Amino acid sequence: MLAGELKSLKVAILGVSLAVCGTITMPALAFDPGAGVTKESGPFALFKFGFSAYKNGRKDEAIEAYKYAAEKGHTGSRWALANMYAYGDGVAENDLEAFKIYSEIAQQGVEPGSEDTGYFVNALISLAGYYRRGIPDSPIKSDMAQARQLYFQAASTFGVAEAQFQLARMLLSGEGGSVNVQQAKKWLNRARKSGHAGAMGVFGNVIFQEGQTVRGLAYMTAALDQCSPKDRPWMQSMQEQAFSLASEDDRRTAIALSQNLHMQGDDD
């Protein structure tokens, strides 16, 4: 993996000035005096308090604690805040604010093996998603090439299955660059071997279209059996369309083969 060869990583967030990523506005609030934590507490203490408050449903206190910890440079608190803004979780949904904070994390970079690696990679993938679709009524416009580059960094340097899957989809569709089916298959293979059901299904669909009817159907069927509920509709539609084009013998053989296919440990 490239991470072992690098001393530090920086991401250039193209097309947006550093001014977009301004400092986080602090609230004019105070903690419960009995909480044992104040805004002067250390960043990790504030983060722990925020995490506990969040788990117990006190999201306003969690946001306050995360903001103070973020101002003191705590990456995990920045990440938690960004997610809350992105999903409207305990605060009004604000994609631009989430984008700003994810950008701060990405620009900060990460040392290989750092405890902040997970936050950094999540920020890369979240930013890629924003660049892929843009943020309405904001300076952040759709930039497929930038999205593709961010997915590539997360996929290649950190081996993240979701990034590998999204990169492969862009390579198949030609989003952000040229179509490259062979590269897409490479990334889909890596992702499915890490347990990504969507990658397994799309890989099956690609080889089905290339003429490997039985194996393609088998992969799509196995992936459908192992996918999450949210992915089931599109994966089922893809599989059913392929099945409608196959012969009865190919269908039976594929179903039997799918029982022996697993997302992990398959060297094909």
What features would you describe in this structure?
With 268 residues, the chain is mostly helical. It has helices spanning 43-55, 59-71, 75-87, 95-108, 117-133, 144-158, 161-173, 181-193, 197-209, 213-226, 232-245, 248-258. The protein is elongated.
Strand-helix topology:
Layout lengths: L42 H13 L3 H13 L3 H13 L7 H14 L8 H17 L10 H15 L2 H13 L7 H13 L3 H13 L3 H14 L5 H14 L2 H11 L10
Helix pairs in contact: 1-2, 2-3, 3-4, 4-5, 5-6, 6-7, 7-8, 8-9, 9-10, 9-11, 10-11, 10-12
Comma- or semicolon-separated keywords:
single chain; 268 residues; mainly alpha; 12 helices
Q: Any low-confidence stretches, pLDDT <50, length ≥5?
A: 1-29
List the secondary-structure elements in sequence, H or E: HHHHHHHHHHHH
Largest sheet: none
Mean pLDDT: 87
Cα-atom Rg, whole angstroms? Answer: 22 Å
Which descriptor suits the 3D outline?
elongated
How far from one another are the termini? 21 Å
Relative helix content: 55-70%
In what range is the share of β-strand residues? Answer: under 5%
| Annotation field: number of helices | 12
Count of DSSP strands: 0
Structural class by helix and strand composition? mainly alpha
